[in-house]
Specification:
By secondary structure, the chain is mainly α. The protein has one domain. Helices cover 42% and strands 0% of the residues.
């Protein structure tokens, strides 16, 4: 489901999303690690993820195993962050 969530933002621009560990960038790192690093969270040269401030609290080198509750927190956080880009105040639905 994390890969599906990321797909909606595949054409994101770094100058819009920034380089901090915001939820959308966290999803990007999770998906990159799922697809290209055998499901082990790897560091990014661009995104500065602070694990203790992230939505799912994974550290670099941790296996990615999201519970339903963790995915829901991540999806809600991305939805809130993306609202202005989608031209709405709630959901991109």
């Amino acid at each position: 489901m994390t890969l599906v969530l990321d797909r909606y933002f595949v054409h994101r621009l770094r100058m819009v999303t920034g380089k901090d560990g915001n939820p959308l960038n966290e999803v990007e790192m999770l998906c990159d690690s799922l697809m290209n690093n055998n499901g082990i969270l790897r560091d990014s040269n661009v995104i500065k993820l602070v694990p203790d401030q992230s939505v799912v609290n994974l550290h670099i080198g941790d296996p990615i195993r999201l519970t339903a509750a963790a995915f829901e927190r991540l999806a809600v956080s991305v939805d809130r962050l993306a609202a202005p880009w989608c031209g709405r105040s709630r959901s991109c639905k």
